[in-house]
Design brief:
Helices cover 39% and strands 17% of the residues. By secondary structure, the chain is α/β, with parallel strands linked by helices. Specifically dimethylates two adjacent adenosines (A1518 and A1519) in the loop of a conserved hairpin near the 3'-end of 16S rRNA in the 30S particle. May play a critical role in biogenesis of 30S subunits.
């Protein structure tokens, strides 16, 4: 088989591979491939991989990032949904025996089983990906909620979503996504990325974000499921006070008295808005509501 000596992600080689295989991009699968070495290097660097570690890539495309990961990590598993890309990946990644290509939808993949099979011999695992933007949140929530043994997650996502994930209380970007992500991890914006590093170029701006996965949540929550229900209720209507939003969800037929006593117990002024509450305040509030028998 012929291999040019170029890295996969040069614009010339990307075009050559795509052309030779008669590949056409599917917008519905979020196919925007990276063609910039600097960005690829930055993404891989941010994960802090070394020859004792493993990497899971979601959506390898034609393998540009996969190749960089293979040069750093002991084991790389790449999950790709598009069957048309599998023979291309097998061809371009042939020089890297430590890479395993898995054909499937990551949202339907048993990741715990995949980890047991592919990462039994590595010290730590990172998820590293240029994610398909149409499923960014479900993919990240699956990775975090399944409590996989991950060191960090370094991903290219839509800039606006990255800003929401990393937002602090009291800002316009802060919401239930910030709280969910920050409950499981410590997010940091690595860099903002121009559209010109992709083919085809996406319609939105992009950013690389690193989520350092926490060993323990930073707050004590008595029932995680209920905690997230309270968070969602608090943001149901952003312009409403916490008291109004909670009343609608938990006390639709009662007066306000009981709710205001419980908010007082949690140390929260009823006139505040959900977007001003810290993770700790949400934890205290959900524990108080749960203690009062709410569900
Ligand atoms: N990693 C490549 C790069 O950076 O050039 C491609 C990234 S592209 C933004 C997203 C990739 O995810 C595409 O290859 C697409 O086919 C794949 N993909 C989309 N939905 C997926 C899913 N549910 N599970 C696995 N892969 C998916």
């Amino acid at each position: 088989m012929m291999h040019s000596m170029d890295e996969i992600a040069t614009p010339r080689r990307t075009k050559e591979i795509i052309h030779r295989h008669g590949f056409s991009f599917k917008k519905s699968l979020g196919q925007n491939f990276l063609i910039d070495q600097n960005i690829l290097n930055k993404i891989v660097e941010a994960a802090g991989l070394d020859s004792s570690k493993g990497a899971l890539e979601i959506g390898p495309g034609i393998g540009a990032l996969t190749e960089k990961l293979a040069q750093q990590a002991a084991a790389v598993t790449a999950v790709e949904i598009d069957q048309r890309l599998i023979p291309i990946l097998q061809e371009v990644l042939e020089p890297y025996p430590q890479v395993r290509i898995h054909h499937g939808d990551v949202l339907k993949t048993d990741l715990a089983a995949l980890f047991k099979r592919d990462f039994a011999d590595v010290s730590k695992v990172s998820v590293v990906a240029n994610l398909p933007y149409y499923v960014t949140t479900p993919i990240l929530m699956k990775l975090l909620e399944e409590k996989l043994p991950l060191e960090n997650i370094v991903v290219m996502i839509q800039k606006e979503v990255a800003e929401r994930m990393a937002a602090s209380p009291g800002t316009k970007d802060y919401g239930s996504l910030s709280i969910a992500v920050q409950y499981y991890s410590v997010p940091e914006l690595v860099c903002i990325v121009p559209k010109t590093v992709f083919i085809p170029q996406p319609n939105v701006e992009s950013a690389v974000i690193r989520l350092t996965v926490r060993e323990q949540p930073p707050v004590q929550v008595d029932d995680e499921n209920f905690f997230f229900q309270v968070v969602h209720a608090a943001f149901a209507q952003r312009r409403k006070t916490i008291s109004n939003n909670l009343k609608t969800r938990f006390f639709p037929k009662e007066g306000r008295e009981r709710l205001e006593v419980l908010l007082g117990e949690a140390g929260i002024e009823p006139s505040r808005r959900g977007e001003t509450l810290s993770l700790q305040e949400f934890a205290t509030l959900s524990n108080v509501l749960l203690g009062a028998g709410l569900r």
